Amino acid sequence: QTLVYGRDRIRFMESLVVGDIAELKPGQGTLTLLTNEKGGITDDLIVTNTSEDHLYVVSNAACADKDLAILRDRAAQLQATGSDVHLEVSDNALLALQGSPSMARVLQAGLSDDLAKLSFMNSITTTVFGVPGCRVTRCGYTGEDGVEISVPAARAVELAEQLLGVPDVWLAGLAARDSLRLEAGLCLYGNDIDETVTPAEAGLMWTLG
């Protein structure tokens, strides 16, 4: 999870990904692709234009180190030409709660905000089951209704245990994720898409701004 600040943050992000970041409303995010010089997909990212004057970027965990190196290198290039952009790496943990209709019911019980008002690919900063400072984004990688919760690392276990205390909630591993993605026809980085595959070849032209 990387936070991008500065008045040139939109231009910075659009120089790296295929999406139209400038059109995102406050609190709105999009799935986009970080591409290399040949158009190959270095990673698929979720980029959110937050209401707090920064972009919130979520990488795949397996690609986080290489993504951050690319972001830092590009930021340095732009800074050298006088652009105003700087990065902050979040140490928050990320929990995903996926599956309809149970997800909404489970989460709403611990949320002061009305989850019904949080539409797909939008996010809010809120308190979740007594843990303040969480960013809840209505998105996911299973093809189901779901959220990803960015939670301060020191309280991640506490929040996970609270969620797992609900009978409808179970831990799910990568095999469950992979089978759900196959059913939903969603690309999986390192399997269907990688640095040798372009957005066109992956059937992901809809991600292009």
From TrEMBL:
<comment type="similarity">
    <text>Belongs to the GcvT family.</text>
</comment>
<dbReference type="InterPro" id="IPR028896">
    <property type="entry name" value="GcvT/YgfZ/DmdA"/>
</dbReference>
<dbReference type="Pfam" id="PF01571">
    <property type="entry name" value="GCV_T"/>
</dbReference>
<dbReference type="InterPro" id="IPR027266">
    <property type="entry name" value="TrmE/GcvT-like"/>
</dbReference>
<dbReference type="GO" id="GO:0005739">
    <property type="term" value="C:mitochondrion"/>
</dbReference>
<keyword id="KW-0032">Aminotransferase</keyword>
<dbReference type="InterPro" id="IPR006222">
    <property type="entry name" value="GCVT_N"/>
</dbReference>
<feature type="domain" description="GCVT N-terminal">
    <location>
        <begin position="2"/>
        <end position="207"/>
    </location>
</feature>
<dbReference type="GO" id="GO:0008483">
    <property type="term" value="F:transaminase activity"/>
</dbReference>
<keyword id="KW-0808">Transferase</keyword>
<dbReference type="GO" id="GO:0004047">
    <property type="term" value="F:aminomethyltransferase activity"/>
</dbReference>
<protein>
    <recommendedName>
        <fullName>Aminomethyltransferase, mitochondrial</fullName>
        <ecNumber>2.1.2.10</ecNumber>
    </recommendedName>
</protein>
<comment type="subunit">
    <text>The glycine cleavage system is composed of four proteins: P, T, L and H.</text>
</comment>
